[in-house]
Design a protein that fits this description.
five-stranded antiparallel beta sheet, Rossmann fold, 227 residues, 7 helices, five-stranded parallel beta sheet, OB fold (Dihydrolipoamide Acetyltransferase, E2P), 2 domains, alpha/beta
Length: 227
Amino acid sequence: MKVILVDDEPKALDLLTSYLKHFSSFELVGTFRNGLKALEFLNTNTVDVVFLDINMPHLNGLSLSKMLPKETSIVFTTAYSEHAVDSYDVHTVDYLLKPISLERFSKSITKLLERTPTPIAIVTSNSPTSIFVKSGLETHQLQVASITHLQKDGNYLYYYVANVKIMARQSIGEALATLPDNFIQVQKSYIVNINAITSFHTEFISIGTHQVPIGSQYKTAVLARLQ
C-alpha cells in the first residue's frame, strides 16, 4: 500500500518513517510538513493511506482529511486527545496520540491490513489458526486459540500457552502484527487474548489464576472493547 506522512514536526516524520520500515506491505511515497504541500501532491497522485497530524499551519489535518477520497484510509496523529471526537467525523481508521510507540503503531498497521480487500481467488481466513514462534534454536507452532496472554520481559516476549511458557526474542509490535484482532495490548508489557479472559476489573484482567494489570494509557480503549 502506498503511504504518505503529513506532520509539521521533522522528528515525528522521522519516527513514523522508521516505524514503516518494519512493514514490507507499505511503501512510503512522500513526507510533507504542511497540509497544502500534501494536497498539491494528492491532486496528481493516488495513495492508499495518509498518516495525518491535526495541528498544522495553513491547512490543518481535519480540513485536509475532508478533501480526500473516501477510499483513502486516514490515521490521525496528534498530541491533543481532545481532537479525537472530531477526527471520527471522517473516514478514520485510527487515532494515534503522541508520543507514538511502535507497539501502538503496529495496531494501526493491523487495522489497515484488515481493511484491504481479500482477492476473491483467495479463500483463506484473515485470522490464522496457528503461528510459528522462534525460541532459541527451536521454532514452535502455536495454536492461536490456546495462547492466553503474552508478557514482555526485557528483550524477550513470553507466550503463555496452557501451562507452558514459550520465550521468543520479539517485540510487542511484532507479536501484534501476527496475532488476530482478539489479542489486545492492555499494558506496555502485556497482550491478552480476549477469548481467554475469565473476569476483569478496572485495574486488572483475570485469566485463570493470572492477573494482568491494565495500564492507565490503555484503560479507556481496553474497557470500551470489553464492555
